[in-house]
Structure formats: C-alpha cells, structure tokens
Amino acid sequence: MSEKRIFISTGEVSGDLQGALLVHALKRQAQSAGMSLEILALGGDRMAKAGATLLAHTSEIGSMGILESLPFVLPTLQVQNQAKTYLKQHPPDVVILIDYMGPNLALCEYFYKQSLPTPVVYYISPQEWVWGDQWKWGVKLFRSDLIVKATKQVLAIFPAEADYMRRKGAQVRWVGHPLVDRMQTAHTRTSARTALNLSANQPVITLLPASRQQEIKYLLPVICQAAQLIQQKLPEVLFLIPLALEKYRQPIEQAIQHYGLQAKVLSDQVGTQTEDPAESVTLQAIAAADLAITKSGTVNLEIALLNTPQVVLYKVNAVTAWILKHILKFAIPFMSPPNLVAMKAIVPEFMQDQATPQNIAQEALDILLNTDRRQTFLDNYAEMRQVLGEPGVCDRAAQAILQLL
C-alpha cells in the first residue's frame, strides 16, 4: 500500500499536546492496519517528538482577547501561507484541524474555496456550542456554518458539542475527551509526592499561571500576590510551579524572588516518545498538590481528572474586557472547562475585576482548611467525569480519520 499523507494543524501548548496524543494513536492504528503514514503538521515540540514533520512551529503563537491577538496576526499569516504553499506542491490525503479557532477556521475556508477533494476533519471544534450567536451587527466569529460546509467529519470531545454540531448539519462522531486516555496511568497523590521528593504531610499548592505570553503579564502577578497572602497564613506551605514553556522560567523565578515565595519551578522534558503521563512533571505537581491555583484552560480538566481542588482565574486587557462586555455584549455561563462540561459551578472562577489576590487567597484557604469542601470537589469531579467518555478516545479518533483514507 502506498504511503498516505496526513496534515494536522493546531497551535498553542494545549493543541500541541492534543496533536501529539493523536499522532501516537494514528501511528498505532496505521501499524495495526498495515498502513504507512507521513504526518505533516503545524504544531510544537510534542508533535515533533511524536513523529510529525513540522512545517512551522505554532505552540507559542496564540492569545486570548482582541488586543492581545494583534502581535500574532502577522506570524500566523506567514505560517499559514507557508503551509498552503507546501500543501499545493504536496497535497495531503486528509486534513485534520485541532482546536486553534481563528487560524484553523481560516484554513477551513481556504480548503473549501479551493474545492479540493481532500477530506477535512475538525477535531475539537470551536466552542460555539457554549457561546452561541451573541455577536452584534452581523459580526459572527464562530463559523459552524463554514465547518458544516467544509468538513467531511467533526470529531467531538463533548456530548453537548456533538449535539450542537449535529443540529447545525455536520457529520459528527463523539469520541470523548483525549485527556481521559492521558490520565489512565497518571500518578496518585502519594506516588506523585514520592516522585517529587515531597513529604506526605506538607501543604502543597501548585500554581499554573501561564501557557500564553499575555498570561505572564496579567495572571502571574495576581497569582503570586495571592500565594504571598496564603503563605502568611500557612508559613509551612510549598508552592510548585511547572513551566508550560521554558521561556517563562525567568519571569516566574523573578516573581518568586520578588514576592518571597517558598516555591520550586519544575520543567518537563517535553514530548517524550511515549508521552507517558507518569513522566510528566506538570501532572506530578498537580497530583501531589492539596490545591491548584490556575489559569482557565485545558489544564483545568487535567486538575479535575487528578482529583485536585482548584481555584480558577482569568484576566485580559482592560480595553478588551470593555469591548467584550459593552460593545459585543459577550456573555458566557462559565469560563473553565469543568464548569462548562457540568454546566454548573463545580470549581470557583474569578474573572477580570473579581480576580484579585484577596479573593483568590480567601477561597484557597477555605478549601484547604475545610474538609467538606474537598469532598464536594471529589463528588462534582466524579459527576463531570461521566460525560467525558471511556478510555480509548485517541484511538477512536484515529480510526475515524484512517477510515477516510
């Protein structure tokens, strides 16, 4: 059988992880089927280590917000033009778009307008099922209509996402959430503390401030100030700070020194060949913790699946926040994925003006000192886990993709 060419497009740290998990699964399933694959990608180090050939590196090109995204417009366009040029010369047999809403919707439109015979699969589609059509004056950012027209199949990770896209007319298969697979061999609290050389009884809080550059500016100071307040009440506490990207080490270490925190900065050996969760320092730090104070994002689901209580915050540029609230009238029920999955407040969220060091520290101390709060977290996490699907998610996604070949 001739070699089949697969092109995958994703961006940011979380997309690189999801892409790497899929690449591993595609290789496993192709080997079982006696198929030979060439996998080309826009992605990051994890995908490269998993076996994809990177056309461009995108794990550091990303932001959340209006003004925040402006510095990334030109780099994104350059990357996309580079990919289009290559794909014209070397047409793929299937295209897979993973999350990364703005850039991937642009690629989705490009493939549709070119009337290419290549099937397009959207895996982890934009969260229009949460946000809906809230934009004014005819401005519609979330393009489910384009996805319906341009894709052969949508591989949904949430049941509500599958139902929404199906109602819009897409061909949809619900596969479940890939983090379910990733957590099957992750550490327990006890084994994680052993791996990190931590005592069994020391209070440990894991801080997860940033996977995007803007978050270093808007979230890191708030989280460190909250940690400082907590340390004043619990002098024996240790803070663990795993790095999403190595380039964040310097500003984080400077913040630790500035606020006088008892903290350890941890760094993963990114993208091992097996992507073994037991070897992930980030997952070890989460599993070992009594509490996580974290940005909003995919990591909130990892924390929930590891049964660690968490406090979530998010802030953007004040001008962006004002435009979203007063001009675009943008409103969502929740920000963090665990709350969106359950459609109820199972983890505390502090957004924009509410994301103060005092609010975060007070909530964190209440969780740490109130045993009933921890049990409530565990009960809610168990309920949430039921709608994320059964293990084998990445293999189900890979099988659906290979069937198109």
CATH H level of the largest domain: which superfamily? Glycogen Phosphorylase B
What Rg, in angstroms, do the CA atoms define?
Answer: 21 Å
Query: Low-confidence stretches at least 5 residues in length (pLDDT < 50)?
Result: 134-139
Order of strands, main sheet, comes to: 3-2-1-4-5-6-7
Tertiary shape: globular
Fold-level CATH name of the largest domain: Rossmann fold
How would a crystallographer describe the biggest sheet? Answer: 7 strands, parallel
Let me know the number of strands: 13
The total count of helices amounts to 19
Q: Helical content, roughly?
A: 40-55%
Q: What is the CATH class designation of the largest domain?
A: Alpha Beta
Helix vs. strand class: alpha/beta
Approximately what portion of the residues adopt beta-strand conformation? Answer: 15-25%
Instruction: Determine the N-to-C terminus distance.
Output: 11 Å
Please, could you describe this protein's structure?
With 405 residues, the chain is α/β, with parallel strands linked by helices. The chain folds into 2 domains: 4-176 and 389-403, Rossmann fold; 182-385, Glycogen Phosphorylase B (Rossmann fold), CATH 3.40.50. Helices cover 47% and strands 16% of the residues. The chain contains 19 helices and 13 strands. The strands form 2 sheets. Strands 3-2-1-4-5-6-7 form a 7-stranded parallel sheet, sandwiched between helices. It has a 6-stranded parallel sheet with strand order 10-9-8-11-12-13, with helices on both faces. Helix 1 crosses helix 19, helix 4 (101-113) packs across helix 6 and helix 11 packs across helix 17. It is globular. It starts with a strand and ends with a helix. Residues 134-139 have low confidence and may be disordered.
